[in-house]
Amino acid sequence: MKLRLAIYFMITLVGSSVLVSCSKFFEIEPYNSIIEEDFYKSQEDLNAAALGMYAAMSKDVHKYLLWGDARADMVTSGQAEPQPYINEFVLNNVSAENPFADYNGLYETIARCNRQLDFVYNVATYDDKLLDKAANAYYAEALLLRSLCYYYLVRTFDQFPIIRSQKGEDISYLDERGIQVKSGSSNLKITDLPGLQNFPEDKREIWLMIYNDVLKALGMLPLNFEWNKESLPSEERYGRISQPTAATFAAELALWLGEYRTASAFCNSPITNNQHSLGTAGAWPSQFTGSFASQHSMFLLGYRFDNSFETNRLQEFTSNLASEGGKYYLKPASQVINSIFAYEGNDIRTSFSFKVFEQDTVIWKYIGLDNVSSRRPAYRSIASWQIFRSADAWLLKAIADLQLNDYASAFNFLNMVRTARGLVKYLPTDIDYTNKTLMMQIIFNERAREFAFEGKRWYDLMLWSNIAGENILADKVSRKYNGEMRTDIFNKLSDQKNWFIPGKPSN
After folding, report:
1. Which of 34-43, 127-136, 150-159, 342-351 has the lowest mean pLDDT?
2. Is 70 exceeded by the pLDDT of residue 498?
3. Quick check: is 139 in a domain?
4. Which residue(s) pair with 307 in the sheet?
5. Mean pLDDT computed over 132-160
């Protein structure tokens, strides 16, 4: 089966030109002119449906930036008169009416993943060339991508529905008249989502569901990007779920669940995999300036202007130049950035993650072409959205080993990241590396530098708080505000219920 250029060029940040949804929200046709009776008959159909799963999720990367960064400490409003709905995230006061707080894109992806899960093994009855290992890979891919959607949901929203099948599950919801209705998920429409009643009462139940699904997928995914005996070249492999991605995802989930030994063990898989490394400082920007970065990237949502003919929303949200499609909605919070980066040594991340141009401080990752001043073409940025990178595994390993009192290992993995980014390694005489509180601060600061503006900071502060057993998030986030507002935000975020935004679909 030819997966080559199809994968790379079809997984873009716009799904409407490739895949369309019907009037029924969960009745997703993989292609505009194909109906279900004619589909799911061959390996090519499975692959086409798989690509559609990514497209629905990819179009919402600007929301992931708002959910994971605008609310946290490193990002603030760029405009002198901020756009009101954008500013709600910056001010940690997101209303239920905010259009950027809808989760339709995630549920479109969940719907497409459910469809793949329900039909993937039926294809073997039509296509005798479909290997069992290949069918398992397609199943695991859908399961893992669906898990990623629920991972976003469980960390972001106060409540949301769980839907695990496209053709089953009698689901209760209130219709527009307030009458309770039971229906199969395939009959649901977008307008039915607000009335869904299958909201889990205990979020730990959701965490365990996600974790167990990821573990199941991990055992089924092919090693080193082999699909039906074909190895994907590096330019294509990072736009698709892989076994190293699954292992890293499982490690992060294990940290959330307090399973530190398991988390450390899962990190070993991507770390020892010769397809991944920390790379070098000189090559680090390439994962943002190009369409892929060999070894640096692990899983990303790619963007091709030639396929979408729309301004990349990452460029729109972060650029300060209207001439290149920029709205300058978001910018770095200078007082926090200066503290975290501290302009130490020759850190390539300091010169590429953000820039200062005259009076404007900008998030440079999505608008820059080098670490000096060259900018991406106006309206034509092809910046990808990174979800997991190789450095995730190294730094998650450091966190896990620290909790296991393996101080030397945690110190070593921290230093490996530092030296790969152009910094001098810490010496035991520089810091007390057996001081857990201090080391947690240093490791999460390293994650802040490594993954700045990649939608991770808010969730990292949640994780850090969870591990430490104290509210780190309230203290860190409040520091980007001044005067009475700092106190108000600290008091608000001291209640963990206020860490979550009201979940809503848009009609």
Report:
1. 34-43
2. yes
3. yes
4. none
5. 93
Question: Domain for residue 69, yes or no?
Answer: yes
Residue 477 included in any domain: no
Looking at residue 423, the DSSP 8-state letter turns out to be P
Q: Is the same domain home to 205 and 64?
A: yes
CB atoms under 10 Å from CB of 455, counted, come to 22
pLDDT (average), residues 307-312:
64
Domain limit, last residue, from 187, 221, 255:
221
Distance (Å, whole) CA 178 – CA 18? 36
Residue 230 makes CB contacts below 8 A (sequence gap 6+) with 1, 3
Q: Based on the domain organization, do 20 and 151 belong to the same domain?
A: yes
List the domain range (segments joined by +) for residue 373. 305-383
Bridge partners (DSSP) listed for residue 360: 357
Range list of β-strands (E), 16-63: 20-21, 28-29
**How crowded is the C-beta side of 28, counted as CA atoms within 13 Å?**
32
How large is the average pLDDT for residues 414-430? 94
Helix (H) or strand (E) holding 124: none
- CA distances to 225, 475, 492, 499 from 495, in Å: 43, 12, 6, 8
pLDDT value of residue 24: 46
Indicate if 66 and 204 belong to the same structural domain. yes
| Residue 88 falls inside a structural domain | yes
183, 38: one domain: yes
Alpha-carbon span 214 to 258, nearest angstrom: 16
pLDDT band at 3 (very low <50, low <70, confident <90, very high): very low
pLDDT at 439: 97
Split into its structural domains, the chain has a count of: 2
